[in-house]
């Protein structure tokens, strides 16, 4: 009796897989062999370049001779540590405008006090102002700041501590 068709197909499949793996491994070995041969060839060429000697008459000198390092002749290496630089800072012109920073407007006083407490934990003093337009709002306000730079510094400090949004506004003229 002849073996069933499924058994023959399985044998052919496994044989084909073995042949595929064997050919893959042979291919990798051939590539590695070419790589090693190229390395050896490069090494021989590199060594031959190092041992090349130039012959002039009866005297032979190696070509790859490195000249000695030149001596440094810089003046600033000695003169800089002895010098002192004096800089006069410019006088800062204070503007007539002061700045305030608002860190939220809330419907309830409890929410505003909670935000004020969060800000106080980071060492910044704030106030709560009632604002009545069409309805009552509680605004958490910091400042006044003479320079916008100081307001920006505090805003960045609060942003690093995840207290946002805070907006900087111009206040009344002094």
From TrEMBL:
Residue ranges of every copy of the SPOR domain listed in the record: 93-172
MF annotations from Gene Ontology: peptidoglycan binding
Key word Membrane present: yes
Pfam families, per the entry: SPOR (PF05036)
Keywords tagged on the record: Membrane, Transmembrane, Transmembrane helix
Record flagged with keyword Oxidoreductase: no
Segments traversing the membrane: 21-44
Descriptive protein name: Sporulation related protein
Organism from which the protein derives: Candidatus Photodesmus katoptron Akat1
Lineage, uppermost ranks: Bacteria, Pseudomonadati, Pseudomonadota, Gammaproteobacteria, Vibrionales
């Amino acid at each position: 009796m002849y073996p069933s068709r499924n058994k023959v197909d399985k044998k052919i499949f496994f044989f084909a897989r073995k042949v595929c793996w064997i050919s893959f491994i042979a291919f990798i070995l051939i590539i590695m062999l070419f790589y090693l041969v190229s390395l050896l060839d490069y090494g021989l060429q590199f060594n031959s370049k190092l041992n090349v000697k130039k012959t002039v008459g009866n005297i032979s000198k190696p070509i790859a001779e490195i000249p000695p390092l030149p001596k440094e002749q810089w003046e600033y290496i000695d003169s800089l540590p002895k010098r002192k630089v004096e800089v006069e800072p410019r006088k800062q012109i204070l503007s007539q405008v002061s700045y305030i920073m608002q860190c939220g407007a809330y419907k309830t006083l409890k929410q505003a006090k909670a935000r004020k407490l969060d800000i106080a934990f980071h060492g910044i003093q704030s106030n709560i102002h009632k604002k009545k337009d069409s309805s009552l709002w509680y605004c958490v306000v910091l400042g006044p700041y003479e320079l916008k730079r100081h307001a920006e510094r505090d805003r960045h400090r609060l942003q690093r501590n995840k207290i946002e949004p805070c907006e900087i506004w111009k206040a009344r003229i002094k």
